[in-house]
Amino acid sequence: MGYAILRAVVARGLVSSGLLPTLGIHHHNRYNAYCLADDIMEPYRPYVDELVCDIMKKGGDYGMLTKELKGQLLTIPSLDVIISGKRSPLMIAVG
């Protein structure tokens, strides 16, 4: 679910910038409407991975998508990312 949220944030940023998310660079699949979003999200995957690892280290049963887990995953758009030495929320960085 973490990557799905990341993908949605990236796709939203692409569309709001006037780009077509279907025209990918490395991802090509005519049944995938978000090939470019899949390309652009690649460098941001480690931020999601780090969040998920932190969640898992805290323990608990994460076999089910609980309200608590959803809340933690919904912080993904506001994760701080660093690009060219500048820190900004993920949602702003991809927009």
From TrEMBL:
UniProt-listed Gene3D superfamilies: CRISPR-associated endonuclease Cas1, C-terminal domain (1.20.120.920)
Any GO BP annotation: defense response to virus
One matching Pfam family: Cas_Cas1
The entry's keywords: Antiviral defense, DNA-binding, Endonuclease, Hydrolase, Magnesium, Manganese, Metal-binding, Nuclease
Keyword Hydrolase: yes
UniProt keyword Magnesium, yes or no: yes
Alphabetized GO MF terms: DNA binding; endonuclease activity; hydrolase activity; metal ion binding
Protein name (record): CRISPR-associated protein cas1
Species this protein is from: human gut metagenome
